# Entry
Amino acid sequence: MAISALLDGLRQALSLILERDPALLEIVRLTFEVSGVALFFSSLIGIPLGAFLGMRRFRGRRLVISALYTGMGFPPVVIGLLVYMLLSRTGPLGQIDGDHIPRLFTPAAMMLAQTIISFPLVAGFTMAAVMGVEPHLRQQIQALGATPMQTAWAVLVEARIGVIVSIIAGFGSIISEVGAVMLVGGNIVGRTRVLTTAIVLETRKGNFDLASALGIILLGLSFMVNATMMLMQGKSFDQ
Amino acid sequence: MSQPVYRLDNVIKRYDLREVLHVDALEVHAGEILALVGPSGSGKSTCLRLLNFLEAPTSGTIRFDGRNYGSNGSVPLDVRRRVTTVFQRPLLLNRSVQANVAYGLRLRRAPDTRARVEDALSRVGLLGLARQKGSTLSGGEAQRVALARAMALETDVLLLDEPTANLDPYNVGVIEEIIRELNVERATTMVLVTHNVFQARRLAHRVGLLLDGELVEVADVERFFAAPTDPRTLAFARGEMVY
# Structure
């Protein structure tokens, strides 16, 4: 049964793609929009944070790293719950009027939850990559006249494979995430429905073919994004 | 007499509570090669890090061109960029040889980068390897690239931290020749750290001995080896010091 559902799913996935099904295209578009923005912000926070933790020694660093490691393993659904409470009408952010505050059941709320889920992963893997760069290299770069920012950039470039892996890990945690986006997004058709929440819904409805089709599309898109990131790395992976 | 490039007074460097360097007074004059000799762990490399402003002394003053950069002041970038170091174990960026040599020039937005990179690589005899990755080079080649990337910057001061340690005699000869040329042609001030007294004798104008972090004696090269004032210097120069 399972194999036949998968094969049917594959057929249906191809047919949905070839037919350019508008509902599917909207789900895929929103999936990429939410994940793309969340990945952008988690990289914006995670890469500098990871670089800082990897390069600097300060009092309380171990505590910060422990918190970061905890964040890396934090259940996404719990983060969804926290964001839900934060943004609900009685929550600290929900009480504030302002266009810049994300509202529940909007893509912005989903982006916020996904950013919180993925930035510790990006920061943690970046930190490990930076710590893997020969420590004396920094001093040699400084001796050539680099500023602290130029030194940090040079070290990040040296650790680029690890940094790309950190982004891929962050992307993986976002694109496959379902609990948090379901909680804060609500899986509203045409507004907050993304591939993962659509798969859950179709499975619950018993539409295994469509659920499998969406799953195959999600896998295919995820593979394409990761392959693109690998290509962006050029030959570094082969050296 | 002209103002010294460096003047160190009562410079102390401690890591935690351990004192690793204590220099009562030291001057480095423009255009000279000053060799600092001493056994491993005597504070030679620490001294170079202080001279390159990579670390600040715990106490004391380091005057560079007459201005004090002691333990409590940050060193302006333009001052830092007048000094560079060639390290004992050169670490190259994971880029081509020419990109490595060009790196410091690009930081400075220097003009004629390409010509200066080619000139530096020709001087060290590695122009043919310009496009090769830094990671594929032998130890001797990597050290010559490190010298080229420092040379290309044309800094006023070049600090050399055991630049020929672990190299074969051919590469030692090549690097010593380049050091001599740079000092004569460009009047580059150099501080050479080495545990090799013969190399110090071959290259330096003046020599200083560091023992257990203490600067024991500094003298002209002839006097340092022929008639040192401190018995420890005599023992070190004769190779009688066991370390």
About this structure: The first strand of chain B starts at residue 6 and ends at 15. Residues 105 and 153 of chain B are 6 Å apart (CA to CA). The two ends of chain B are 38 Å apart (CA to CA).
